[in-house]
Design brief:
CATH superfamily of the largest domain: Response regulator
CATH architecture of the largest domain: 3-Layer(aba) Sandwich
Domain Periplasmic binding protein: 42-303
Largest sheet: 8 strands, mixed
Helix content: 40-55%
Shape: elongated
Distance between the termini: 92 Å
Mean pLDDT: 89
Main location: other
Pfam family, one: Peripla_BP_4
CATH class of the largest domain: Alpha Beta
Strand content: 15-25%
Number of domains: 2
GO molecular function, one term: carbohydrate binding
Number of helices: 11
Keywords: Signal
CATH topology of the largest domain: Rossmann fold
Length: 354
């Protein structure tokens, strides 16, 4: 007997079910891929790893990138050498980085590698400072004009508690940073303009320091000799504070914060050393940079732009985005620190490992 085998075709309804299932799987896979976006490979270089600020910025950036699922190709330390920083970034681009992140050591010296990244369609993010050429996807830094303005507002608030205010004879010394740098220029602009606006009768003496403690000490000594009744000192950076305090003490004006005859002292940066000066009543206040937000905001922007987003100009809840010749600049708000909030866990200096 010959056995005849007949091919059994599945029911048409079953075919439709299988086809529908395959389509759902395909759509699901496509949706997951769209949600995840392309692989992001990041190359990072700090300026150096010799201070708490740069070291913590690297540590927080690594954690922020990891939380986003980015691949960190490397984070070499150029040790303050812009040529080494350029070489490191070039190597990271050659190794497949889709985004480079750096704190520029030199605004002009970093430009060649930025242009190389632009030609290779690699995203470019500059933290804490800005380059002088090329095109950045975004730069992320503190709103230093606002930092200076906050310092001036706090200075005026404290001057009002002294005798000089009622007699309209207050004098304030501003120890400027390097006015050739964006941070130095912006902090001075914010402080001086706000002080003149809120306290037009206050005499402002401005002295450049190029960010050096030695020049700050010399300027303080000279001004205290000429104006022994000096009422306040604004320092563009806490790097000057110890040297300035030494001169204030030598002039017999080293009283603790709030004591009769004390000179009001306010600075910018929010370093561990600066916060300790506040705790020891040797500094009235400082403006803490938003270092915590540098890392998280940079990671957010990398993710956003990698998925096709654009960094739009305009106000934000945490600051503002302004247009610059090299691209959008995200300016984050800084935080006023006094004895009342010096131990806040939200301040970057309190995150530094002891």
């Amino acid at each position: 007997m010959k056995l005849i085998m007949r091919k059994q075709w599945p029911h048409i309804g079953a075919l439709r079910t299988v086809a529908a299932s395959l389509m759902v799987l395909a759509l699901g896979a496509g949706a997951a891929q769209a949600q995840d976006g392309p692989e992001v490979r990041v190359g990072f270089t700090p300026k150096f790893l010799k201070d708490d600020f740069q070291t913590l910025m690297l540590d927080l950036s690594k954690k922020a990138f990891q939380a986003k699922g980015f691949t960190l190709l490397g984070a070499p330390d150029p040790n303050g050498d812009v040529a080494a920083q350029v070489d490191a970034l070039q190597n990271l681009i050659a190794n497949g980085a889709t985004a480079i992140v750096f704190a520029p050591i030199d605004a002009a010296g970093i430009v060649p590698v930025i242009k190389q990244a632009n030609d290779a369609h690699v995203l470019v993010f500059s933290i804490d400072d800005v380059p002088s050429g090329g095109k950045v996807t975004a730069s992320i830094r503190a709103d230093n004009v606002d930092a200076g303005a906050q310092a001036a507002t706090e200075m005026v608030s404290r001057l009002k508690q002294g005798a000089c205010w009622a007699e309209k004879r207050c004098t304030v010394l501003e120890l400027q940073g390097a006015l050739t740098t964006p941070n130095g220029l912006d902090r001075s602009k914010g402080f001086s303009q706000t002080l003149h606006s809120q306290a037009p009768d206050v005499k402002l003496i401005q002295r450049p320091t190029e960010w050096t403690a030695d020049q700050a000490a010399d300027a303080t000594q000279n001004v205290l000799t000429q104006v022994p009744t000096l009422d306040g000192i604004f320092m563009a950076s806490e790097l000057m504070a110890t040297a300035v305090n030494a001169q204030v003490g030598a002039a017999g004006r080293g009283a603790a914060v709030g004591a009769p005859g004390a000179i009001i002292r306010i600075a910018v940066d929010g370093t561990p050393q600066g916060l300790q000066l506040i705790r020891s009543h040797a500094l009235d206040a400082t403006i803490s940079q938003p270092l915590n937000a540098y890392a998280s905001k940079t990671a957010d922007l990398i993710e956003w732009v990698s998925k096709g987003g654009k960094v739009d100009i305009g106000p934000r809840d945490d600051g503002q985005v302004v247009d610059t010749p090299v691209g959008p600049q995200y300016q984050l708000k800084a935080t006023l620190v006094t004895a009342q909030n010096v131990d806040s866990p939200l301040l970057w200096a309190n995150l530094v490992k002891k």
